[in-house]
Design goal:
307 residues, alpha+beta, five-stranded antiparallel beta sheet, 10 helices, 8% strand, elongated
Length: 307
């Protein structure tokens, strides 16, 4: 996000009246578009997941740095106010062809990135969608209009100044990130409500409901660790298999005073907010220990009944 800010302001140097700054602006002018794509494809984990996402981002940087630089070194400004200090050999036709090539690659990459985001949204769980919706929708809209802007510029601007719409949408992307951070902070504030609720939670199953509300995951499940039998069971003492890595759910082990107590089986989107999960686990440690003892008793009763 910081890199995006620097790339954005560097692109505005093309409006400078000083030749060295103007030249720097020519080289960095399209870079922020590649950084925007990188930001959206890496959100919310910060990691590029999948070969296609990594290939799109790598190609975007090559396009906005290498191909653009090739067009800059043969570009001579129309106005006499500033000079391109990187000019090697003025060639307007070659410069225009390279710019259009860079624009065409950019359009293809932006549209491919939108397909990746659409597939990710389609296969996501409801909690993940709620967490990323503001950034993903506004970012995708900015990317779509950005592709339209590149195509419009390459065709001589038949649609007028599309960049005004693009810049307006672009300005909302940081606000969307702030909304995401605010939502995360508000979710962590629910831990205080959880502590109060745990004080009056006694009935079996109510603990799971309280934790589900605190983590905003209606499908949350609890598994209790039986150290003697080396296995997890549910509240009724029945065996439970924790989900494997890469499945539709994840398991977070809860420990109390260095001892394994239970496991929360939750939506994978909570992996991106580990502080919330850790705070909830710490607040519910004693209550989970109490329910673990109940589950252990029921498991022993089930074993005794089999004999």
């Amino acid at each position: 996000m910081v890199f995006f800010g620097f790339a954005w302001f560097a692109s505005l140097l093309v409006y400078a009246s000083v030749s060295p700054l103007y030249t720097v602006g020519l080289f960095f002018r399209p870079l922020f578009i590649a950084v925007l794509g990188h930001l959206l494809l890496a959100f919310p984990s910060g990691r590029l997941e999948g070969r296609l996402s990594r290939a799109i981002v790598a190609a975007a940087y090559v396009d906005t740095i290498v191909v653009n630089a090739a067009s800059v070194v043969v570009y001579e400004p129309d106005s006499g106010g500033v000079k391109n200090l990187a000019l090697l050999d003025a060639n307007a036709a070659l410069s225009g062809a390279l710019k259009n090539t860079a624009r065409g690659i950019g359009v293809a990459l932006l549209l491919t990135g939108l397909v990746v985001l659409a597939r990710r949204w389609r296969g996501a769980t409801p909690p993940w969608r709620r967490a990323v919706a503001p950034v993903l929708w506004l970012g995708a809209a900015a990317a779509a209009v950005g592709a339209l802007r590149l195509l419009n510029d390459g065709l001589g601007r038949p649609l007028g100044r599309v960049e005004l719409v693009f810049f307006a949408l672009l300005a909302t992307v940081p606000l969307a990130f702030e909304l995401g951070l605010l939502r995360s902070r508000l979710a962590r504030g629910a831990v205080a409500e959880l502590v109060v609720e745990l004080g009056r939670t006694r009935a079996p199953g109510r603990l799971r409901d309280a934790l589900a509300r605190a983590l905003h995951d209606p499908a949350l499940a609890l598994a209790y660790w039986l150290p003697e039998q080396r296995r997890f069971v549910d509240l009724e003492g029945q065996p439970v298999e924790l989900p494997s890595e890469g499945g539709l759910q994840l398991a977070t082990i809860v420990e109390r005073e260095g001892r394994r107590v239970a496991a929360l089986v939750h939506d994978p989107s909570l992996r991106d907010d580990p502080e919330l999960v850790e705070a909830v686990c710490a607040a519910a440690g004693l209550a989970l220990e109490n329910e673990r003892l109940q589950a252990e008793l029921r498991a022993h009763l089930d074993v005794g009944s089999e004999w």
